[in-house]
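Field reference: sequence -> structure
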Amino acid sequence: MKKHEYTEIRILTDSLSPDLAPFFQEARSDIDDGNYLDAEKIYINLLPTISKERQPSLALVEVLNMLAIINARYKGRHDIAVGYFRDAIKKATNQKNLNHTLVALYLNLGCVYYLESNWDDALEQYKTALAIALNRGENQTAIDAIKNNVNDVLTAKKHSLNTLESVSVDNLTTEEAFSVFREKAHTFMSFSEWTKAEDAIKDSIEKANQLKDLRLKALALNDFALIKSEQGNVEEALALFREAAEISQKLSDNKTYASILNNIGLILKQNNKLDDAIEAYLQSLEIKKELQPTDNISNTYYNLAMLYFEKGSYGEARKYVENAIALDRANKDPHLRDDLELLNKINQSNKK
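Structure field:
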């Protein structure tokens, strides 16, 4: 087992239906020959068929895993890779004969996060892989390899934090110092070092005030609100979000304004204030419709659909999720699977 490297998963073609086996063989040949984009097209075309037909669970897992590897290793699309890996894990979970496959999938997902220097998420995936491997009674060599991955992450995380804390802004301009403090805050947030993140973002707000730059101040206030939200200080977070939103609105910075409204909607939803959350998302949606290109609008459609679904307003929920489906299908966005899953839940609940 190589450290921080992706593992391919391949089903025996004999277990596939005769009409599908040649496509798997062709895709694998393309991978072996370095024709990754050709392989990706085959796997994408296979996806709807093997999702519906009575094929072995491992067939779908292979397709999802390979699509993830292609996006991560060859296209640099780690965001899409994470979605595919998580779908593969979901499919393999609760399949007793796929526990060994689950170890590989969690290691693959951990590898994506590791290569992004997202140490906390990498650590979570590697530890999950280790727990499954120990439970399965894997050989000691495999166990040690996973433990080495875990130790690598812990070492990298410690080194990153030490390096970050030693960065000085003494010889920087005020604007450069703002950027450094904000970057520090983001990094501390990724490590769940909330107190250090708060100190850094307060420093960035101070620099924005010195610059008298309201746009930078709004960005920093939004970050401060996210920190307060993670600390469980809901009212403080909302006050900071609203201050940032007010500034962005006055500046006609509609992209930032829409993003902050979306964050307000999220925190209200998390605190079960569904009607207020809907209002925030609707405001965000109207602004996003005017942006060119439309900025992450399908996500807002999905969030609205989920809120209306939770309220039992199935007609409204269906309307918004169908908008999300149309956009994600046109853009070949992996979130399409989430959209379709929600639509199915809406339809099932509406029948009761």
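Note: The radius of gyration is 23 Å.
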